[in-house]
Amino acid sequence: MIKLTQIKKSYGRHQVLKGIDLSVEQGEVVAILGPSGSGKTTLLRCMNYLERPSEGEITIDGFTVNCKRPSKSDIHALRKKSAMVFQQYNLFRHKTALENVMEGLVIVQKVPKEQARKQSIELLEKVGLGNKLDSYPSQLSGGQQQRVGIARALALNPKVILFDEPTSSLDPELVGEVLAVIRKIAKEGITMIIVTHEMGFAQEVAGHVIFIDDGTIVESGTPDELFNSPKEERTKQFLKRFTPDGTYSI
Ligand SMILES: Nc1ncnc2c1ncn2[C@@H]1O[C@H](COP(=O)(O)OP(=O)(O)OP(=O)(O)O)[C@@H](O)[C@H]1O
Ligand SMILES: [Mg+2]
């Protein structure tokens, strides 16, 4: 379903991604962990070509882009395969929740307005915001804004949703409602890649966990393998930070 081959990305002389290989099956949920600056956001951005990789090949849903020689139509087709949910929500401030979700349907997918409206209402109901259709982002809590962000991503009907630390801007009491929505979508079988520091959530919802450090995949495996018996020293050091007693179990 998704295959990344030797994805590299440099900013000037700084190589941020050093050759990432990754395969993801249809319906799989993959969690990406790693320290700040390790390249997690860059990797997600490369996957939907918000950032152009310097080298490598990206295949999503049978469609391949060679990053050295991409054509405009290749990039356009690849972008349509994924939708991103951002840490900072990235909603249009001057549009209501409903208008934010409708935007992609009307502008990108050319769905007639009435139909887009109906679909968007259903999606907002799905994320528990059926009563906030006409609220502007400034009138919504962080958790509610992020749920609008998720509804907006779903509206694009993507093959994969890329979540970039979807709960890390939220007050702790709002994290649960967003995780609950992501959990619900995961059960519906959408392929998801989630960068997160919510270790308990990653362990529960992901089928596969990847630990990235310094632009390289250091270790990957099932949640049980990675969290309960990490092999690499760097993985152990990283996970230690997340447990107060210094053990790896969570
Ligand atoms: N547009 C850019 N120009 C130059 N350097 C950049 C750019 N974007 C990212 N970088 C650098 O690339 C490295 C990886 O950044 P990235 O945002 O991918 O890290 P991250 O793993 O997502 O970190 P965090 O957990 O803090 O979000 C960092 O050293 C960063 O400074
Ligand atoms: Mg990041």
UniProtKB/TrEMBL annotation:
It holds the Pfam family ABC_tran. Keywords: ATP-binding, Cell membrane, Membrane, Nucleotide-binding, Transport. One of its GO terms (cellular component) is plasma membrane. SMART domains: AAA. GO terms for molecular function: ABC-type amino acid transporter activity; ATP binding; ATP hydrolysis activity. PROSITE patterns: ABC_TRANSPORTER_1, ABC_TRANSPORTER_2. InterPro entries: AAA+_ATPase (IPR003593), ABC_ATPase_HisP-typ (IPR030679), ABC_transporter-like_ATP-bd (IPR003439), ABC_transporter-like_CS (IPR017871), MetN_ABC_transporter-like (IPR050086), P-loop_NTPase (IPR027417). It is a peripheral membrane protein. Its main location: membrane. It is found in: Cell membrane. Transmembrane segments: none annotated. Residues 2-239 form the ABC transporter domain. This is L-cystine transport system ATP-binding protein. The lineage of its organism: Bacteria, Bacillati, Bacillota, Bacilli, Bacillales.
